[in-house]
Write a structure and sequence with these properties.
This protein is mainly alpha-helical and about 230 residues long. It is built from eight helices and six strands, in the order βββββαααααβααα. Strand 4 and strand 5 form a beta hairpin. Helix 2 crosses helix 5, helix 3 packs across helix 4 and helix 3 runs antiparallel to helix 5.
Length: about 230
């Protein structure tokens, strides 16, 4: 088995700040959504940024509830803002490239959307709960986001796969350099899926509520800090 590690390098973007903050009003009384960046003819708004950060901010609050220092919370929040903004710009660039390449994912997306629409007919309440748990107000909104995500995945795979594969042996060697031993030497039959050991896994039921997910996340963070 080979493991895909990829970094997509993008250039040629011009970003422009705006003097308006999200929610301010123009002279005619209309609401103005702050502009975070302009990529080609596409605009990344402050609302886009807030929506993209929503889940990570919830996780950050859970870590704060688990005992994270307030100054560290503020620092991570600022870093999260910058990272999310850059990701939004990069994702927009990827979509523009996919459009220029004429890539289409209609068949794949239409199949998945068709299954969801069938489920919506049979169990509308269950599907709506599924959508709302992921921050979507309608099935059409979810399908549009899914189409963009599949397009991004397609263009990234086309651009980086050929030059970014790492063998199992290379991954094992990197782990041994970092930790002084191989994974298999400490646990017979162990196999790496990542060279990071800073993750703690807690089992969760598939139907677990967001409140339960965040509660478990805070518990995991407390465990992680105790192991440092």
């Amino acid at each position: 088995m080979r493991w895909l590690l990829g970094v997509l390098c993008v250039t040629g973007v011009m970003c422009r700040a705006t003097p308006y903050a999200s929610g301010q009003e123009a002279a005619d009384g209309t609401k103005i959504d702050g502009v975070v960046a302009i990529v080609g003819e596409k605009v990344v708004t402050r609302s886009d940024l807030v929506a993209a950060m929503e889940f990570q901010v919830a996780l950050l609050r859970a870590r704060q509830a688990g005992g994270m220092d307030a100054d560290e919370v503020q620092q991570e929040f600022r870093e999260l803002q910058a990272e999310t903004r850059d990701n939004l710009v990069n994702n927009t660039l990827i979509l523009l490239e996919a459009e220029e390449e004429g890539l289409s994912v209609d068949d794949q997306v239409d199949r998945q959307a068709g299954k969801l629409r069938e489920a919506m007919t049979e169990n509308p309440a269950e599907v709506l709960a599924f959508l709302r748990a992921r921050g979507y107000g309608s099935l059409d909104e979810y399908v549009a986001a899914m189409r963009e995500e599949v397009l991004r995945q397609r263009i990234v795979m086309l651009r980086v796969r050929a030059r970014s594969e790492v063998t199992d042996e290379e991954l094992d060697a990197a782990f041994a350099r970092r930790h002084g031993h191989t994974a298999g030497s400490r646990c017979k039959g162990a196999r790496l899926i990542s060279s990071s050991v800073s993750q703690i896994w807690f089992p969760l039921l598939a139907e677990a509520s967001m409140e339960r997910v965040l509660e478990i996340y805070a518990q995991a963070y407390r465990c992680y800090k105790a192991l440092e």
